[in-house]
TrEMBL record:
Signal peptide range in chain numbering: none
Keywords attached to this entry: CBS domain, DNA-binding, Transcription, Transcription regulation
Database matches in InterPro entries: CBS_dom (IPR000644), CBS_dom_sf (IPR046342), Diverse_CBS-Domain (IPR051257), DRTGG (IPR010766), HotDog_dom_sf (IPR029069), Ser_kin/Pase_Hpr-like_N_sf (IPR028979), Thioestr_dom (IPR006683), Tscrpt_reg_HTH_GntR (IPR000524)
CDD domains (UniProt xref): CBS_pair_DRTGG_assoc, hot_dog
Protein name listed in UniProt: Putative manganese-dependent inorganic pyrophosphatase
Superkingdom of the organism of origin: Bacteria
Natural source organism: Oceanobacillus picturae
Matches recorded under SUPFAM superfamilies: CBS-domain pair, HprK N-terminal domain-like, Thioesterase/thiol ester dehydrase-isomerase, Winged helix' DNA-binding domain
GO-annotated molecular function: DNA binding; DNA-binding transcription factor activity
Claim: Nucleotide-binding is one of the keywords in the record: no
Keyword Chloroplast: no
Length: 435
C-alpha cells in the first residue's frame, strides 16, 4: 500500500497543469498533517512537477523531458529575475520557445514576436497589448507597471505579464545564463537515466531460500540480487559467495549481507562509479527516499554510460570543459602539456584560480594514464602547492609523472612551469576504472 507521502505525490500528478496548490488544501483533501503535506510538496518541487513563486504560490507545472531541458517555464523565469506577476497567472506553467528584446520599432518587433515567446520590453503599453494578442507573454523591465485593461487581457489569454526591477539587457543575460545552465545539466548523467527498473530487475524476498537463489541464478544468469521485505524495502544483498556450500532450505536473510550500499535516482554517474571502484561492488540497488527498491545499477551500466559520454558532443561548457579544451599535447612523445591562462581561468586579481589549477592537474593526470593505457581515474586525494602566481595570458607547461601504478590505483606527481620556472605542483592519489 502506498504511503501518505506517495499518495500526495500521485494526487499532485493527477492535477491539471497550471493548478494552484497549497499545504492546507492538500492536508484537508487527503486527511494528512500540514507537515506531511509540506514535505511532499517540497519533494514534488524537487521532481520538477510544481514550482513555488513568491507572491503567487505553488503551481503544478509540466515535468520536462531531457530533450526539452533547455526550455524554461514562465514560472521559472519569474524566480530567475525576481519578478512580480501583474496578470495571466494561469499561464505560468507554459514554456517559452524563445525571447525577444523589444529595442526596436513596433512593426519590426512584431515580426519576431510569435506564440509561446517572451517579449522583454520597457514601459510601452501598445507593445504589451500587441504581444499578448500574438500569443506571447510580456516581461516589463525597469520596475514599471501596465494598464488595467492589459492585465485583464493577460488573464483572458492565460499569458503571464511580469514586471522586474532589472533593465532589459540584464534580464536577457540572466535568462540566457539559466538556459545555458540547463544545457549543462542536461549533459550530466544520473543513475535514474541508466538503471534497470524494479519491474524488469531480479530480486529476492527475505523469506526466500538459498534454493530459490539458485533458481533465480539459472533464470537470470546473474549472481547478485537485492533482498527486500514485504514493503519492497531493501534489507540486504546476496551473492554467490554468501550461498556457497549452504543448505538449500536456509532462509536468504540468514546469509545475506545486511545494510548494503544503495543509491538514489538523483545520484550522479560519477558518484556511483566512485563507490563501485572504492568498495569493489558490481551491483548497487537503486532506492527511493523510503529505501524501497526502484531497480539496480551494475558496473557494466556505469562503464557503458561513461564511454558514451566521452563520444557525445558538448553543448554547454563548464570550467572543466574549458580547461580540457585549452590543454594541448606536446608535439614529441613525452606526456607534456601546454595551456594559456585565459580570462575565464582567472580570479578577481587576474591570476590563475585555485579551482582551475586543480582542474589542470587532474586533466593532465587523466591524459597521462590514457597515454599509458591505464584507464580513467577517480581522484581519491589531491594535494596542491602554489609556489608563485600565474597571471592572465601566461603560457604554462604541465609535466605529469607516474610515480606508482597498480591494477586499481595510481600515484601521480604534476609540475606546472611558467617562464621555465616551477610555479606550482600537485600530487594525486587515484583509483582506476578499466576501460
Amino acid at each position: 500500500m502506498a504511503t501518505k507521502h506517495e499518495q500526495i505525490i500521485q494526487h499532485i500528478l493527477s492535477l491539471s497543469v497550471g493548478h494552484k496548490i497549497s499545504v492546507r488544501q492538500i492536508a484537508k483533501e487527503l486527511g494528512v498533517s500540514d507537515g506531511t503535506a509540506y514535505r511532499a510538496i517540497k519533494e514534488a518541487e524537487n521532481q520538477g512537477i510544481v514550482s513555488t513563486i513568491e507572491r503567487v504560490g505553488t503551481i503544478r507545472i509540466e515535468r520536462k523531458n531531457r530533450e526539452n531541458f533547455e526550455r524554461l517555464s514562465f514560472a521559472e523565469v519569474i524566480n530567475i529575475i525576481d519578478g512580480q506577476v501583474l496578470g495571466g497567472k494561469t499561464g505560468l506553467h507554459k514554456t517559452l520557445n524563445k525571447f525577444v528584446i523589444g529595442a526596436m520599432q513596433l512593426d519590426a518587433m512584431m515580426r519576431y514576436t510569435e506564440a509561446n515567446s517572451l517579449l522583454i520590453i520597457g514601459n510601452r503599453v501598445e507593445a504589451h497589448e500587441l504581444a499578448l494578442n500574438e500569443g506571447a507573454a510580456v516581461l516589463i523591465t525597469g520596475g514599471f507597471d501596465t494598464e488595467d485593461h492589459i492585465k485583464r487581457l493577460a488573464d483572458e489569454k492565460e499569458l503571464p505579464i511580469i514586471s522586474t526591477s532589472y533593465d532589459t539587457f540584464t534580464v536577457a543575460a540572466m535568462i540566457n545564463r539559466a538556459i545555458y545552465d540547463q544545457l549543462i545539466k542536461k549533459e550530466i548523467v544520473f543513475v535514474g537515466d541508466i538503471f534497470t527498473p524494479y519491474e524488469v530487475s531480479w530480486f529476492l524476498q527475505a523469506g526466500d531460500t538459498v534454493g530459490e537463489w539458485y533458481e533465480l541464478n539459472e533464470k537470470s544468469g546473474h549472481t547478485r540480487f537485492p533482498v527486500i521485505d514485504d514493503s519492497n524495502r531493501v534489507l540486504g544483498m546476496v551473492t554467490s559467495k554468501d550461498v556457497v556450500a549452504k543448505e538449500a532450505s536456509l532462509l536468504i536473510d540468514k546469509v545475506m549481507s545486511k545494510n548494503p550500499q544503495v543509491v538514489q535516482a538523483k545520484t550522479s554517474l560519477a558518484s556511483v562509479a566512485h563507490m563501485m571502484v572504492w568498495e569493489g561492488i558490481e551491483v548497487v540497488p537503486v532506492v527511493d527516499q523510503a529505501s524501497r527498491l526502484q531497480g539496480v545499477i551494475s558496473r557494466q551500466d556505469v562503464l557503458k554510460a561513461l564511454q558514451q559520454i566521452q563520444r557525445q558532443p558538448q553543448v554547454g561548457e563548464t570550467i572543466d570543459d574549458i580547461v580540457s579544451r585549452s590543454l594541448i599535447d606536446s608535439e614529441d612523445d613525452k606526456p607534456v602539456y601546454h595551456a594559456d591562462v585565459t580570462p575565464q581561468m582567472t580570479n578577481q586579481l587576474g591570476t590563475l584560480s585555485n579551482g582551475v589549477f586543480t582542474s589542470l592537474i587532474t586533466e593532465a593526470s587523466s591524459r597521462l594514464l590514457m597515454h599509458y593505457k591505464k584507464g580513467d581515474l577517480v581522484v581519491e586525494n589531491l594535494t596542491v602547492y602554489f609556489l608563485k602566481p600565474m597571471q592572465i595570458d601566461s603560457k604554462l607547461v604541465i609535466k605529469p609523472k607516474l610515480l606508482e601504478a597498480g591494477r586499481m590505483y595510481a600515484k601521480i606527481e604534476v609540475e606546472v612551469y611558467n617562464e621555465r620556472k616551477i610555479a606550482g605542483k600537485g600530487l594525486i592519489m587515484a583509483q582506476l576504472i578499466d576501460r
